[in-house]
Amino acid sequence: IDSNPETAQATPGYFRDHGYLTLGLGKTFHEDLGQWNAERYWNVSGPAGLPYFPYKANTCPIGNEGGGQCIIPDEQIYDYSLRLEAIKYLRHAATWSKDTAAPFFLMA
């Protein structure tokens, strides 16, 4: 399959349809920098929502996109920023869940 059909149901959509706060980060899907079908699957707006944190490939002086021998500061590596954002999103989801008793699903 070269692309995801718009009528497909993926894991985050299932959870969102069943009352979960769903937040996404990184390359959860191949299309649209990982955020494919964002309005249907992720809580990207509203009081609980956070914008989808898009995928961004690293580039290294030696090696290919996303890999190779990257000797650069952590702050310049996408996975490092993804880790920091995931922590923020988890804290947000945990607070939301505590305040509303609603479950959450985070995919990164």
Please tell me about this protein's structure.
By secondary structure, the protein is mainly α. 31% of the residues lie in helices and 7% in strands. The chain has a two-stranded parallel sheet. It is flat. The model has no long low-confidence stretch (mean pLDDT 80).
Identify the notable features of this structure and list them briefly.
108 residues, mainly alpha, 2 strands, two-stranded parallel sheet
Succession of helices and strands: HEHHE
**Global shape:** flat
Overall residue-averaged pLDDT value = 80
Question: Strand count, sense and closure of the main sheet?
Answer: 2 strands, parallel
Structural class: mainly alpha
| Poorly predicted tracts of residues | none
Strand content: 5-15%
| Number of helical stretches of at least 4 residues | 3
The Cα radius of gyration reads: 16 Å
Helix content: 25-40%
Record field, number of beta strands: 2
Please give the alpha-carbon distance between the first and last residues: 22 Å
> In what order do the strands lie side by side in the largest sheet?
1-2
